[in-house]
Specification:
By secondary structure, the chain is mainly α. It contains 4 helices and 2 strands. The model has no long low-confidence stretch (mean pLDDT 82).
């Protein structure tokens, strides 16, 4: 009975780690290439390959081996270090949304002719 609970816990942990790697991969895919260079981080292709490998390894191998742990470290480094630097350089979340009011024009806020 105790082993069944432990196996369930490891299954949930595996899903969480896969979601972490998938989030990092999805986020890196929608960032601009020049933002990686401007933030002085590795290039976009490097992070896409590393995060894709982390996702595949976390799916294929047991959580108690060394490869999924290395994938988790890579995912955490991207989310904690690279992603905030990219957001700071690009000035947004990178997913195509614009910040600002709905009354903003191309050159700033439109104030109705005042």
């Amino acid at each position: 009975m105790l082993m069944l609970g432990f196996a369930g816990f490891l299954g949930i942990l595996k899903i969480i780690l896969m979601a972490l790697a998938a989030f990092g991969l999805f986020d890196a895919a929608f960032r601009r290439e020049d933002a990686f260079r401007a933030a002085d981080k590795q290039n976009k292709v490097f992070w896409l390959i590393i995060l894709a490998i982390a996702l595949v390894v976390s799916y294929l191998f047991s959580i108690l081996s060394i490869l999924p742990i290395a994938g988790v470290v890579a995912s955490i480094v991207y989310i904690v270090d690279v992603r905030p630097a990219l957001r700071q350089v690009s000035g947004g979340n990178g997913w195509g949304r614009r910040r600002g009011s709905s009354s903003d024009g191309p050159y700033g806020p439109w104030n109705g002719g005042r």
